[in-house]
Amino acid sequence: MKKSASIRQVLSCLEKRGAEIYIDKSFCDLPSLGLGREVHAGGVLSGCHFDVGYALPLCGLRSLPRAAAKLGAQGLPILAVTL
């Protein structure tokens, strides 16, 4: 399964359950995130402080340590999905 299909599936599942989805600022210039559809984000994350209950980074194995360092510094629970 392609990464974009996996991301599309996870986001669709979250949207159906009414989850608020926040996108990292580095992806703001990609309205469809390469997914072939719009992503309905509740907000944009920038900087190092986020007002969220938990994080679900969708990333590859090389990006996971960077995501964990950025999110874990705030003591956020992280459920990582590696693609």
Features:
alpha/beta, single chain, two-stranded parallel sheet, 83 residues
Gyration radius (Cα, Å) is: 12 Å
Question: Strand-residue fraction?
Answer: 5-15%
- Uncertain runs: none
The main sheet orders its strands as: 1-2
Separation of the first and last Cα atoms: 9 Å
How many domains make up the 3D coordinates? Answer: 1
Q: In words, what does this structure look like?
A:
- The protein has 83 residues and is α/β, with parallel strands linked by helices.
- It has one domain (3-82).
- 28% of the residues lie in helices and 12% in strands.
- The protein contains two helices and four strands.
- The strands form two sheets. It has a two-stranded parallel ribbon. A two-stranded parallel sheet has the order 3-4.
- Helix 2 links the parallel strand 3 (58-59) and strand 4 (81-82).
- The chain is globular, with a radius of gyration of 12 Å.
- The N and C termini lie close together (9 Å).
- The mean pLDDT is 75.
Give a summary of the structure in a few sentences.
The protein has 83 residues and is an alpha/beta fold.
Task: Please write out the topology.
Layout: H1 3-16, E1 22-24, E2 43-45, E3 58-59, H2 64-72, E4 81-82
Parallel strand pairs: 1-2, 3-4
